[in-house]
Amino acid sequence: MKELVEIIAKSLVDSPEMVVVTETTDADTITIELKVAPEDMGKVIGKQGRIAKSIRTVVKAAASKGDKKVIVDIK
């Protein structure tokens, strides 16, 4: 999942070298934290959060085979 979020985020931003993705696994959840440069935050979130919602939807679809819930946190 980490690689998927990283590829999507790097394709959206102007500074792909500033993209940092960390993955934390608990008993029943996987938390993916995405950090981008402040000037690229709007590109990752999108108008009314549409791009952020799309990223979360793609990650949840990719994780549907597993039993764990996936949370994408954009900072």
TrEMBL record:
A GO MF term: RNA binding
Record-linked Gene3D superfamilies: 3.30.300.20
UniProt keyword list: Cell shape, Cell wall biogenesis/degradation, Chaperone, Cytoplasm, RNA-binding
Subcellular location: Cytoplasm
CC per GO annotation: cytoplasm
Tree of life domain: Bacteria
Biological processes, Gene Ontology terms: cell wall organization; peptidoglycan biosynthetic process; regulation of cell shape
Pfam families: KH_KhpA-B
PANTHER family: RNA-BINDING PROTEIN KHPA, UPF0109 PROTEIN SCO5592
Entry's family note: Belongs to the KhpA RNA-binding protein family.
Subunit structure: Forms a complex with KhpB.
HAMAP family: KhpA
Job description of the protein: A probable RNA chaperone. Forms a complex with KhpB which binds to cellular RNA and controls its expression. Plays a role in peptidoglycan (PG) homeostasis and cell length regulation.
Name of this protein: RNA-binding protein KhpA
High-level lineage: Bacteria, Bacillati, Bacillota, Clostridia, Eubacteriales
